[in-house]
Known about the structure:
heterodimer; A: 336 residues; mainly alpha; ABC transporter involved in vitamin B12 uptake, BtuC; two-stranded antiparallel ribbon; two-stranded antiparallel sheet; 14 helices; 3% strand; globular; B: 326 residues; 2 strands; 1% strand; disordered C terminus
Amino acid sequence: MNAPSTGSGPRAIPDRLEGRWSSLFKSWETLLIAVAIVVFIVNALSSPYFLNAWNLSDATFNFTEKAMIAMAMALLIISGEIDLSVAAIIALASTAMGVALQYGAGTPELVLTGLLVGLLCGAFNGWLVTGLGLPSIVVTIGTMSLFRGIAYIILGDKAFTGYPPGFAWFGQGYVWWVISFELVLFLAIALFFGILLHWTSFGRTVYAIGNNLVGALFSGVRVGRTKFILFLMTGLMSGIAAICLTARLGSTRPSIAFGWELEVVTMVVLGGVSILGGSGGIPGVVIAAVIMGLVTFGFGLANVPGIVMSIFVGLLLITVIGAPMLWQRLKGERSA
Amino acid sequence: MQKLLKSRELLLAAVIVLLLAVIAWRFPGFVRPRNLANVFNDTSILIILALGQMMVILTRCIDLSMAANLALTGMTVAMLNAAMPGIPVPLLIALGILLGAALGAFNGILVWKVEIPPIVVTLGTLTIFRGIIFVMSGGAWINAHQMSAAFKAFPRTPLLGLPVLSWVALFMIALMVVVITRTPLGRAFYAVGGNPTAAVYTGIDVGRTRFAAFTFAGALAGLSGYLWVSRYAVAYVDIAGGFELDIIAACVIGGISIAGGIGSVGGAVLGALFFGVVKNALPVINISPFWQLAISGGAIILAVAFNARAERKKGRLILRNREAAA
């Protein structure tokens, strides 16, 4: 928390994004790439099955769906908000698709249902946060229970199965050789959000809101509208992730994607986005997603259970956030 | 009178009474004292945890790792009991509280000394704690037959008409009322959450106060760890999975502001009781328990909307929301 600023001097005015900050992020991303390379080499040395195009392709499924959401979540967190309901949106969207299937929906209708439910959920979150002015962290804890709760009401302990083969392609299909549809879709989404955040005025407003909400308001930025759009996009991405995941698993249970919200947030924060808002970028988040995917896959090849890897991810998260803060403190104390 | 009407606690109590009245109209058996005592007993652990979370939220932090802390301490005491049944239960409870406090202190030190945002710290420790349980237990369960009779009996033992579990919760409520309203530390929690900068100028160490809140919350989670494992007579990696959000929800429903500085022991208890009543009433009025999640979600959203309105009426500046979200 950033509350007591006494004694640490005046806060740096964050209008010099091209200067010290940008070099910091450049080094952050370099660090992430270094970590990714180390993980890759360790994996390659420890398992003879790692350097296989098909296995590597399988490894991408570990992160693509979460990473799609992480792209939109990154913008949301940069703007100073958060959405903890993303995994619940997946559950609700997937359940809605299952219901649509019962009514004889074909592949296009199924996809449309998923997208629509995602958008609606995002709009609901956005309305609660921007329309009613409620803090997003609590609101989305509430909608997280609500959305998944509705999925439980509809499904109970049953499951929807029997999705059409054409639909399965969204989660299992390959565009070319080992390049899966999901991977291509993820790259396209990453490119879209990268351009949106780093090369458009919309992206600049997102940073402005996250850095100085009051300043942005006084500069005529339509804060509410921007945040609403961000929630909408996060909902939409969750809907898309729901389509991919449902198609890949071929079934819907209300517990689908349980706990993903924390993994998505971890991905974003690991990627160098400040949880306090105002800084970070898409390339870092993409690399962080790849690292998490490679680590999961590598541990899997080494027969290490997924939950042990969670220790690693947790430690990574804390060290990666804590190290620069400690470093800054030490530096500050030395110069003082 | 005006003030009484506006009291969040009173309103919530009225909602709960109304809920009970509606249920009693069709199912009078539900409001029999015996059954209400059961509902309270069933909610005891949530109450204890909500009290811990309340302290943390009051200081404008959040602890997502409480359920994982509970699971880790619960598994530790269960494994100790299974391996060495000779260890007396009070010693195990003390050990659980200590271990829980140590885990909470770990969160606290990261928030205090390394200045990592609490949500990131506890997100990280949440996964670490769960991972440690797996490594420790090898993914195995500790079942009822591996636990000693005394280990399982303690929370069930009747004492003056109520099980010990309920008495523990009542004792914790009393203790917390004293700590929150009658000690400098309690005042410091409010000061740190209400206005950290002003707190610094009045000579309160913000970081240390938050550290204290996390440590106490951890101790309560540790105590709950033993209570949970002995009450349900089973320990495995995923016990209380997802419970961290129920705890926060109970606090939010109880009117504890996520922006810090606002809330009371009564609110936390009533928020938890609201959960308990809903959870226990659903099977009685013949609604599938699958409705519970959606109902609590709706209740959280309504409670937050209501809290925000009440706070705005008081003319509070809500621009700090961003800091709270961190």
